Amino acid sequence: MSVHRYAARAIRGDLLRAIVGFMLTAVPCAATSESPVAAGIFGLLATLFFVFGVRSYIRRFALVLVTEDGVISCPLGERSPQIPGFRHASLAWRDIQAMRVRFFSTKRDRSEGWMELRLADGKDRLMIDSTIEGFESVVARAALAAERGGVVLDDATLANLGSLRIGAGAARI
């Protein structure tokens, strides 16, 4: 079994962005009492940055466990209580019905960005992004399971697997 956590560096960066964004929108929100439209816009943006900050803080506890039998996502840690919205997701490799690897670029030339792995079986699904330590090994194991299960992968997923240097013998859409 391998245990994967989100990189502390990425979490700190997200928390810093959330704090700066919250401050840059909350202060004008409080200062624009004459204009309810501006206050509403800044208030909405401040709320989004606040939610992003809370989500980023919670990610520091998240674990992804990869075993021979499957993958388990524990959003609040392995022994976390079952809280609505933070439930564990568990997928057996033999039951994988869908796999998608997407790339989100942060630059126009696509030289920087992050990837996202989405897996699903008939009843559960999970998403893991590339800021998790050992992302490539999780994707490689998922690609092997998809190939063995005959999962059909789209062209974008195949291209992204290629950029990770992971072969996929699965059929194309």
Describe what is shown at a glance.
42% of the residues lie in helices and 22% in strands.
What is the topological layout?
Blueprint: E1 2-5, H1 8-31, H2 36-59, E2 63-66, E3 70-74, E4 89-92, E5 98-105, E6 113-120, E7 125-129, H3 135-149, H4 155-163
Antiparallel strand pairs: 1-2, 2-3, 3-4, 5-6, 6-7
Describe the structure.
The protein is elongated and about 60 Å long. It has helices at residues 8-31, 36-59, 135-149, 155-163, and strands at 2-5, 63-66, 70-74, 89-92, 98-105, 113-120, 125-129. Helix 1 (8-31) packs antiparallel against helix 2 (36-59). The chain folds into two domains: 2-59; 66-163, no CATH class. The protein has 173 residues and is α+β, with helices and mostly antiparallel strands.
Q: Strand-residue fraction?
A: 15-25%
Strand order of the largest sheet: 1-2-3-4
CA(first)-CA(last) distance: 32 Å
- Uncertain runs with pLDDT below 50, 5 residues or more? none
Question: What number is the mean pLDDT?
Answer: 87
Mind summarizing the main beta sheet?
4 strands, antiparallel
Number of helices: 4
Number of domains: 2
Series of H and E elements? EHHEEEEEEHH
Shape: elongated
- Using only C-alpha atoms, the radius of gyration works out to 19 Å
Q: Would you count the extended β strands for me?
A: 7
Task: Indicate the structural class.
Answer: alpha+beta
Helix content: 40-55%
